[in-house]
Design goal:
The protein is α+β, with helices and mostly antiparallel strands. It has one domain: FomD-like (FomD barrel-like fold, Beta Barrel), CATH 2.40.380.10. It is built from 3 helices and 12 strands. Strand 11 and strand 12 form a beta hairpin. The longest helix is centred in the C-terminal third of the chain and has 20 residues.
Length: 217
Amino acid sequence: MASWIPEQLIVLRNIAKSDGSVTTAIPAVVLQDDGRCLATLIVRGTPFKNNWVIPADQRVESVENITPSSQRTYKELSWWNHTIRLYLYDFGYSVWLNFDKDNRFESWYGNLEAPFVTTPIGIDTRDYALDIVGKPDWTWEWKDRPEFEKRLELGVDSAEHQAWVLEQGQDFIRRFEAQAWPFDMGWQDWRPENDLAPRQLPGSWAEDFGSANAWSD
């Protein structure tokens, strides 16, 4: 059943595997929730919190020296573009749609992650370090495979867990290539009707709602 209503503010959070604390918190607005897919919008310029900012060329190396999330310092950053995130109920990935500075659709993004859980302020999930980039011409490519493979090599992830993550990625790819749900919902044609104001995080953005207990990875 649908849980959220259009225009409602929610907080999209990533929960660390290391200690269950919040690594990223982003305020977003609900576009639609039909009980199958929760569509959210992050407005360009939205301030958000992140305590895991690693340059791309250091991502693989960083796996060997992961500092527990609660020991890191949060940075306040600004979201760079309008982004629609489609959170699919009970799926192991979300689908992001990125738009350029002129609000033209730019790319799809498959973020492989734990099935989201609802919190009093929004939704929580856990990132699985492997992603898929989809282009408007319906071609695609894996992203961050070296980092993902390093996690297996070091025992950060189990072989069983990574096999499941890859299955979720293959599901994304099958649906994407077939232009099937949720890729047939038409969100790539979305355009803002007027100037959109960035949302702000509530004071409870870092609160522990026990979400880490929802996942066994």
